Amino acid sequence: MIACRKFVMPRVIKHPELRREELLDHAQVLFLTRGYDKASLNDVIASAGISKGAFYHYFASKEALLEALAERFARQALAGVKGILGDPGLDPLARLNALLAQSRQAKIETAPEAWALFETLFRPENLVLFHRINLAASASFSPLLVKIIRQGVEDGTFRTFDPEGVADIVMQFGMATHDVVAKAITGGGDADMEIAIEVLEKRVRLYEIALDRILGLPDGSIRIGEPGYVRAVMTARRRTSAGKAQ
Amino acid sequence: MIACRKFVMPRVIKHPELRREELLDHAQVLFLTRGYDKASLNDVIASAGISKGAFYHYFASKEALLEALAERFARQALAGVKGILGDPGLDPLARLNALLAQSRQAKIETAPEAWALFETLFRPENLVLFHRINLAASASFSPLLVKIIRQGVEDGTFRTFDPEGVADIVMQFGMATHDVVAKAITGGGDADMEIAIEVLEKRVRLYEIALDRILGLPDGSIRIGEPGYVRAVMTARRRTSAGKAQ
DNA sequence: GGTATAATAGACTGATGGTCTATTTTAGCC
DNA sequence: GGCTAAAATAGACCATCAGTCTATTATACC
Questions:
Q1: pTM for the whole structure
Q2: Which domain covers residue A23, as residue numbers?
Q3: Which residue in A has a C-alpha nearest to residue B37's C-alpha?
């Protein structure tokens, strides 16, 4: 039992990250198309072309796979936004607007593929996955928002007694917007979409004014998106998703 | 094959509702304590003391059981609130405040048992259940809110261009409040709770002022809860949940 | 080439949601 | 009370799932 090893000890450090990333790619597609519950582990490993033993070498469980996927989503979402905080040439309001613009308009318009994935997160079958990503994302996103709002409060741009609370509201509005957009896109026909666009455009205006007033700013200070951008986003998305089969 | 029946045809109408309700009771306890996923169908039928055949006579699937439970929750939540809309002696602001008070303070303080159940909905394992209930609840709750806000807009009490949007925001705030309360209660020790109470009290004030401003009301018009009520609720809940084993 | 470990394969397991067939209970009708 | 058809119930059975276990191959270092 007590094998007195001769201490030859080769230490091997490989690159399991690559395999993990590859697995996450396959899992992402399957989880988002079928939902976390409906996509079985066998589906994932079949898609990746590996055995069960290999999978469990890289991930402790299906749950761990989900967690890793959520973390990767959050990391990617955060990456495009980090620079704004570091930019010293922006005042707090511009910074907040830049953050909002970046996290919606820019991202949506420049990367419809990424948005296509994000949008499926709002489908009911992806509830679990969405929740995980949401947790991971707001854990890293909220502090950025709080920091910006705090700066604004300190230099007098914003007026509020609860920066964390306002940050939370901003996150809530952001999620609600995504939700409405996703519902509209996945929803009914073109006539429905016209109505949805109108509703959403109005909603975005409401959120803007609400944030203005909550932060003690004059109406029209906060810009979540230009007028007409909802239509642009949604027609663009419609075009993209039209080419896909189920 | 073609049995030419003599058309004796007895028609039997029983009361399957009772059995269904009973099953929902057992499912409610199990789903809320263990979570929807972790509570197996066998657990449910064992708890109810019936066979699988009997269960599938009343419900098409485990999913259908969840749906029915969510509907019942929503129905119960709505029941206590219906009267407010019918009360002709209230102006829109009082009506909105009454609705907010009813759906929080009153409900919480008068029925800690009900709230204890509700609170567990926010635990991560109950995500699916919560989402269903939330859907069912807002489907019936939102129209009430919209109606009240519309009345207020018509008679000039409220000023907004998007009553549906404001109703959505009210729902969002309500959910966020529940969420924070639940996290604080299920969270750490008494010291943490003191901090949580402070945060939440501040958050409630923020939501109140936010709604005031969104609706064009003077600050202090909307009352979600009296100052100090958060502490009362949370200490009351702590006492209740302290007596329970896991 | 020897060796310890990383990596992989895939049969196997226990539990789960759901199905199926068989049996008992219920309720109207003569 | 007997006849009948449906309602209600029981529980064996099934396919599928996440996860385990043992066996085998590949790799990197000596």
A1: 0.79
A2: 16-59
A3: A37
